[in-house]
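Objective 1b. Sequence-to-structure analysis of Peroxisomal bifunctional enzyme.
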Amino acid sequence: SIAVMQALEDVLKKADADPSVKAVTICGENGKFSAGADIRGFSSPSTQSFSLGALVSLIESCQKPVVAAIEGIALGGGLEVALGCHYRVAHVKARMGLPEVTLGLLPGAEGTQRLPRLIGIPAALDMITTGKHISATEALKLGLVDEVVEENTVEAAIRLANKV
């Protein structure tokens, strides 16, 4: 939602400016990282004035390490948010993908640029053009995530953030 994206932008800017903050971990709620955008909101004026791509670029340009703690699902815009992070930790049961293509939509927050940089063009094209979801284990093999855990994903992401 716009409210979530605005809150994330505000917190990132505040964290980046605060010298006491050494790293940032982004996580979802209720066991899910993010299912992406609700397509019913695409035509609302407030949605058109806010760019998920700009938010993902802000994450990527953060001067401090940003780690995504992926639980449950990271789909569509949710995966694009994770792609903007410097590191990604996923729970072993997590699934990731860009399913909007099955609705005739292209990923709109630069996922089509960031995904190939991480996992290579052939694997990225497969995910982008089919809408296929992949498991955390497959994501690790492809280089989409840096670590897969069976424990608390947020705690593992915080440990990684503290390391880097």
